[in-house]
User: What shape does this take?
Amino acid sequence: MNWLKKQKCGSVPVKQVPAHIGIIMDGNGRWAKKRGLPRSAGHSAGAETFKKIVQYCSKIGLKHLTVYAFSTENWRRPAAEVTFLMGLFEQYLNDALKDFEQRNIKVVFLGDKSAFSPNLQRLIADIEQVSQSKTGMVLNVAMNYGGRSEIIRAAKAIASDVKDGKLSVEAIDEKVFADKLYTEGQPDPDLIIRPSGEKRLSNFLLWQSAYTEFVFMNVLWPDFSEKDLDLAIDEYAARNRRFGGV
Assistant: This one.
């Protein structure tokens, strides 16, 4: 107990911080509706929460953080909302270019970037390049990401390697498959947190979450705080992870 007290960073003992946390950032629209505001106001508030939680995760010693920012299904939302979100992403990434130069955080974008505007693609590439040599927390931002499309993409890449004679069918195993995913070389998430009261994965990290612990919380994302993250980590730390064993 004395060791835990001495080794605290933020409010979470270093010993119990998972290596990799995924967060489904959900509830922006409902947060705005409750306040009689447009959905865009909820997305703006959610972006501020994102900044705060990223900084806190880095502070407590988390090695990998993956946030679900925009799914492959989110294109089905009203055109005005999608347009606002794309503008918000551009605004945030412009600000983040300066911010991440000062922080020891490596940023990786997961998903199909080709669907974004040339300017947004350039910003994504610039941030990945600026942060490439960082040695601190890896921040994965899932944008135009879907777990099913990621698995199909990996399967096609493996099929192409087999067709070209680079890989034999017999050599295909879980590691070969995992190395074709966007998260190549990173550990699977230990914990996935979903605020907003919804209790589903929504196509997030389907392959990687085979043995992930889940914590669902009745707080909308713009209201999600460092204390909520601490509570989720405490719940994770109290569980007995057996990975199929006894």
In short: Strands lie at 8-9, 12-13, 20-24, 64-71, 105-110, 137-145, 191-194, 213-216. The mean pLDDT is 91.
